[in-house]
Specification:
Elements lengths: L3 H10 L12 H9 L2 H7 L9 H8 L3 H13 L3 E6 L2 E6 L2 H5 L9 H21 L5 E3 L18 H6 L3 E6 L1 H8 L9 E7 L12 E3 L1 H13 L3 E5 L7 E5 L5 H8 L10 E5 L9 H5 L5 E3 L3 E3 L7 H5 L5 E5 L12 H11 L11
Antiparallel strand pairs: 1-2, 3-7, 4-5, 4-6, 5-8, 7-8, 9-12, 10-11
C-alpha cells in the first residue's frame, strides 16, 4: 500500500540525481525523519527552479497563506533551497544529494547518521557513484602549472571567490556523519564554502557562518595545508560551493577509491613526476586523497584526479601539474541543465525529468 513517503521517494528518484529504493525501506525512514506529511506533499508540487510563493500559488492552487507558512520553515529544515532578501523570497526543490542531505547539517544526529550509512551500503552508493557524469570534480589547489598553462576559470578557486559578493562556511556533513558514528578523522570539519553573487545572501542562513572574502581564502589555505582536496560542482558555470574533501569521510573521494572511478570527476590537469628529481620520500603518497600514488624507485602516479596536493608537498619539486590533452582531456558539462540532461540519460530517465523544471 502506497504512502506519501513512497510517492516522495519516487519523486526524488525521478530527479537525475536519483533516490533508489531498498528492500529494507531504510530510505523511507530517512524521509520520515526529514519531512512530515504536509511538507512531503508540498515538496512534490515544487519545481527544481526558483519560484516566488505567489508564482507557486498561481501554478499549483495552494493558497498563499499556506506557502508563506511552510516555505520558510521547510527551508530552515533543509528540505528546500530558499533565498530571502528583504521583502523578496524564492524557493526551489532539491535532490537528495547534492541538496537535502547536505542541508540536514543542523539536524543530523546519530540515528539519522546510522540510517544514511545503511542506505549507502544497501543501494545509494552503488547507484549514485557509478553513474555519469559525476556530481563533483576536483579543482587544482592554488599552485602554478607547468609551462604557465592557464588554469580554466571553472577550475580556479580564485575565480569563484573573486566573482562572489557573499561568502559563508559550514561544517562538512560527511565528516559530521562519520564523527557521529565514532569514525571522526583528524581533518578540520568547518571547511565547506558557499558563495553567492549578491550581498548578505547568508545573513539568515541557519547552517552556515557568514564570512569575508579574506576569511574564505584563509579557509582554502588551511584546507590545503591539511591535505584536503578542493571540489565543486562538475560544470563550467554556476558553481556556488567549494567542498574540501578527504578520502576517509567524503563520498566522492572515498568512493573513487573503493567503488568507481566515476565517483569524482578529475580536473583537466594531472601530476607528472620527474623521475630523476624524485627521491622516493613518500610525501606525495601521504598527501594524496585519491589513492593514486605508489612509491617504488620513484613515485608512480596513476588515476590522478589533478588536485595538486602532491605538487605542493614535494621537497625536490619533482612533480608538476600539466594539462590533459587529446583523449585524456576531461569533458565538463556546460551548466547544471546540461549536467542534468546527461545524468538523466545515463539513468535511463529520458525527458521525463524535465517536468520537474
Amino acid at each position: 500500500m502506497g504512502t506519501i513517503y513512497n510517492s516522495l521517494r519516487e519523486h526524488l528518484d525521478n530527479m537525475p540525481n536519483g533516490y533508489p529504493a531498498t528492500k529494507s525501506g531504510v530510505e523511507i525512514e530517512i524521509l520520515k525523519m526529514i519531512f512530515n506529511e504536509e511538507e512531503a506533499e508540498l515538496f512534490m508540487k515544487l519545481k527544481m527552479t526558483f519560484e516566488t510563493p505567489q508564482q507557486t500559488a498561481d501554478r499549483t492552487g495552494v493558497d498563499i497563506e499556506t506557502l508563506n507558512r511552510l516555505l520558510p520553515e521547510m527551508t530552515k529544515k533543509g528540505q528546500l533551497l530558499g533565498i530571502v532578501l528583504r521583502n523578496f523570497s524564492m524557493y526551489k526543490a532539491m535532490p537528495f544529494i547534492f541538496g537535502i542531505y547536505e542541508f540536514q547539517l543542523p539536524r543530523i544526529d546519530k540515528e539519522m547518521a546510522l540510517l544514511c550509512e545503511q542506505y549507502g551500503e544497501e543501494a545509494f552508493t552503488k547507484d549514485f557513484f557509478s553513474k555519469t557524469p559525476p556530481l563533483m570534480k576536483a579543482i587544482p589547489i592554488g599552485i602554478e602549472v607547468k609551462d604557465d598553462t592557464k588554469i580554466e576559470p571553472y577550475e580556479s578557486v580564485a575565480t569563484f571567490i573573486e566573482g562572489a559578493k557573499s561568502w559563508a562556511v559550514r561544517d562538512c556533513i560527511c565528516k559530521k556523519e562519520k564523527a557521529l558514528l565514532g569514525k571522526k578523522c583528524d581533518k578540520p570539519m568547518e571547511v565547506c564554502l558557499s558563495f553567492a553573487p549578491v550581498e548578505h545572501a547568508f545573513d539568515n542562513d541557519h547552517a552556515s557562518r557568514a564570512i569575508t572574502k579574506e576569511e574564505a581564502y584563509s579557509i582554502l589555505k588551511m584546507a590545503e595545508d591539511a591535505g584536503l582536496v578542493h571540489m565543486t560542482s562538475n560544470v563550467k558555470s554556476g558553481q556556488y560551493y567549494i567542498c574540501n574533501c578527504c578520502k576517509c569521510c567524503c563520498g566522492p573521494l572515498s568512493k573513487y577509491i573503493a567503488v568507481s572511478k566515476n565517483a569524482a570527476a578529475k580536473s583537466n590537469y594531472m601530476a607528472v613526476v620527474d623521475n630523476d628529481a624524485c627521491i622516493a620520500c613518500g610525501a606525495c603518497a601521504d598527501r594524496c586523497q585519491a589513492g593514486a600514488v605508489t612509491i617504488n624507485e620513484y613515485a608512480v602516479i596513476q588515476d590522478c584526479i589533478g588536485c595538486g596536493l602532491c605538487v605542493s608537498s614535494c621537497p625536490t619539486e619533482a612533480i608538476k601539474l600539466v594539462k590533459r590533452e587529446g583523449a585524456d582531456a576531461v569533458q565538463v558539462p556546460e551548466n547544471e541543465n546540461d549536467w542534468m540532461a546527461q545524468r538523466a540519460k545515463g539513468r535511463g530517465l529520458g525527458d521525463d525529468y524535465k517536468k520537474l523544471f
